[in-house]
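Translate structure to sequence.
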């Protein structure tokens, strides 16, 4: 891995076209290289059999084809979840998770190493912010797993920007990665196959709304009053619930799309009947779906996940109040597949005694 060279996945199609034109190459070479990267999934310049040898050599000399150095891989006992720990050139660790379902192959990808949002129940938030990923480093996570799935004649069907980091804190790179992966002449995964999860950065939500993106939007909510939510998600002090919900209404009205709310159920914190009723009242009239997530415990948070009975009751109350909701299937608990847990353990292990 030649980390001194610029990462080729950081180039969008227009930039790649301009680069090849500057080298005196005909316009169709850009399509050939683009298809090699995103359709054939080649990750070495010498693999590009559709272009002349001298151009392959020039690509190899001028660009890196990987910034992600695989450090560790873990599989869940049922074989349906796989987590990979990568090291970045700057020495920071990130992780990516593949979840296999009956009809879907979903990737949970990272947009930052660490996170500045400080959500108390999240292992990544407990790490603090380390660095932003480039758009190419976000893209490369998807291509890495796409190559693995291709070996089984399978492919990625969905991508959630819900791994390490706050995607809207790295807005330009996150959305550029989505655009690159949804490019019709390349990887061609439709924009609606992506979901961006945010803790509720209202200016970014408004920008996202104004740009009329087709990518799905999910909001980490977890509480219906500011005091409780601020104790869990410090960003709520800056962007309180009433303003957040208003921004969500604007998104739904202008996009015509349903919005998702994520609710991590924590025992005796936000799993009561009263909280469920309050949540239904808060979301009344909004085209939305609630994703109920039994807490994935972390070492840095003392809270426990709700009982099965509480989870069922919470879901049933929302249903009775006309709120669409599902309980997320828990995956990868035995391999600490929650955001940042593997990277956190790697960081702790790397610290001197």
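Result:
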């Amino acid at each position: 891995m030649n980390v001194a060279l610029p990462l080729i996945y950081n180039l969008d199609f227009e930039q790649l076209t301009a680069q090849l034109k500057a080298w005196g190459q005909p316009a169709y070479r850009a399509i050939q290289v683009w298809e090699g990267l995103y359709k054939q999934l080649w990750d070495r310049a010498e693999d590009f059999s559709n272009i002349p040898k001298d151009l392959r050599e020039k690509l190899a000399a001028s660009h890196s084809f990987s910034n992600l150095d695989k450090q560790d891989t873990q599989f869940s006992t049922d074989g349906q979840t796989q987590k990979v720990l990568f090291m970045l050139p700057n020495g920071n660790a990130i992780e990516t998770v593949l979840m296999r379902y009956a009809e879907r192959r979903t990737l949970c990808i990272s947009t930052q190493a660490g996170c500045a949002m400080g959500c108390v129940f999240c292992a990544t938030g407990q790490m603090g912010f380390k660095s932003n990923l480039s758009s190419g480093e976000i893209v490369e996570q998807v291509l890495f797993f796409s190559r693995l799935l291709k070996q089984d004649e399978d492919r990625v069907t969905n991508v959630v920007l819900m791994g390490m980091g706050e995607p809207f804190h790295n807005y330009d790179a996150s959305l550029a990665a989505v655009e690159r992966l949804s490019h019709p002449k390349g990887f061609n995964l439709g924009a609606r196959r992506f979901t961006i999860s945010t803790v509720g950065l209202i200016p970014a939500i408004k920008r996202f709304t104004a740009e009329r993106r087709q990518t799905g939007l999910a909001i980490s909510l977890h509480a219906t009053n500011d005091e409780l939510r601020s104790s869990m998600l410090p960003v709520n002090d800056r962007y309180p619930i009433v303003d957040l919900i208003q921004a969500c209404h604007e998104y739904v009205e202008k996009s015509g799309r349903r919005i998702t709310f994520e609710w991590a159920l924590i025992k005796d914190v936000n799993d009561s009947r009263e909280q469920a009723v309050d949540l239904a009242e808060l979301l009344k009239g909004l085209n939305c779906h609630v994703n109920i997530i039994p807490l994935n415990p972390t070492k840095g948070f003392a809270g426990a996940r709700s009982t099965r009975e509480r989870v069922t009751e919470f879901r049933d109350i929302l249903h009775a109040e006309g709120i669409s909701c599902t309980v997320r299937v828990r995956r990868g608990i035995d391999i600490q597949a929650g955001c940042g847990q593997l990277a956190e353990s790697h960081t702790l292990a790397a610290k001197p005694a």
